[in-house]
Fold:
Amino acid sequence: MDFIRNFPFFGIFFCMSSGVINSILPGKWAKRVSLTAITANLAASVCVAYYTIKTNVSTVFIMGHHPAPWGNEIRFGILEGCFATFFCIIMLLSVLGGIKRLEEDISEKRSNLFYVMVNLILAAALALVYTNDLFTGYVFIEIMTIGACGLIVIRGEGRSLVASVKYMIMSLIGSGLILISLSIIYDITGHLLMSNIQETIHVMVENGQYLNPLTTSIALISVGLAMKSALFPFHSWLPDAYTYATSTSSAILSSLISKAYIFLLIKIYYRVIGIDIIFSNKMINLMFAFGILGMIIGSLRAIYQDDLKRMIAYSSVAQIGYIYMGIGLGTHAGMMAALFHIMSHSISKAMLFIAASGLSTVSGRSCKYTHLQGSAHRNKVAGIAFLVGALSMIGLPLTGGFISKVYFAQAAINDPSSWKMIITVITLAISTLLNAVYFMRAIICIYQPVKKLPKNIVRRKDYRMTFALLAFIVANIVLGVKSDAIVQLITFGLGMFN
Amino acid sequence: MVVNLFHNYYETVAVILFSIGFTTLLLHRNMIKKIIGLNIMDTAVYLFLAAKGYIVGKAAPIVVDGVQSQKAYINPIPAGLVLTGIVVSVSVTAVMLALTIRLYRRYESLDIDEITMKANMEG
Structure:
């Protein structure tokens, strides 16, 4: 049983090294290696989650037998175990769902490079989830950035090149801010391990020392990670990147990469700075304001799009806004709602991207609304998956999206003294309405009755996509129906987080 | 306040350099200058770290002549962080340069606005 403690490290290491090996394998083998690595990591993460739930303590794994102030550490509790499992599931289903489209988009000769990126990103995501060392976190943030850039650019078209350059510029600015913030934190505390930093910061705040550098570093790291996860004013790279990347890439980018950054931010808030200090800091009001603006403006921009993938991309901006609004509420209930929304949004968004690729495949590979008319009749599973995803985004009962909206509203109402309460509730209502407007338009478009099917469209069965979409639908319904158990796990996990 | 700025002149210079690099990376239209900005920004952080690790009058942390007391040496950890940072910075610079070459071959321009315009016209 105790052997499971080694699994997080083994998982990251295996994923990373198999990624390196992929670069010299032919595409077919790279695909097999990559899928094996993801599945193995999924199994390992399930074991880790089971172990943490069983033991109910947050375990510290010391790397290379160097104890605390010198060595590097991995630390995992319930939340880490659950999110690692969750990220592996998302990765597996996104790759499976988009694999056929991927083979059409990328030449066989280069397809192994895609799997290099997939492995690197999964390894980085797991490392961000598990690590207990800030600087290791920074290194893996950069690995993830490079991997994400590769995912965007892999199609090799002009537009995806430009999109990836824009992504890199915003992302590198974010990295710079994170790096200088880490340097400031290291300077004022003298530590790099999260638990040691937190002890020192508590003493510092009690004595009233170095409060300005501390606030500066909180602001810098929050903005840096917000840039990378495409919070509203920093979202300029997002629509192009999601639209011109292949569908698996878009699903991974929106559901895994940006969410891993947000998870890291929440972890830094709890583990490094200490959540009480964050809640009393004015910085989260900024996050709240950006989140609220993102919810409205992202949705408004989504209404104007005539391209399905672009619409989903702008909807992502709005949903990232929800998550930051939850963080910005400054209560434990808000954090919990944000974490739940990370899960529900990841599942729905990945499902929507894969479904959109399925719909466009039967409509002449175009994502324009005019071409997509009636496409749900041509690809029934993708149509249903899109419907479920859209309903979840709007927030209808039985779906994950409904539960997260309920928790956001509850978190706001539980704190009636705060000025944020009324703003949150009103914005939730407006945003739901706007979501309904643009998703209804898409649903009506794809379900429009068509008299005769165009003949030139090849209708080959894509079992892997069907499987992935069905699994996404089930996961979404499970999130909606069995939310109590998941919320309980998140609450326990957050309790272990400091 | 101003006295503090002069007293910690390494840090002040580092922050000024950081802002220069940051602005260049964000606002400059030329891709190559953007990459130079990126490097200035990262180097500023290394200057900041190195300045923080340095203690006046102490030697580099390499044991010579059998002196093992930690009081004789500067803090080695920031130097380690700088090395890691340099590795990261080199790799992202390489990626950016590779992307720039691809862009230049395709659009024959280094101006990001012009490139965006041409890419949009491509449809």
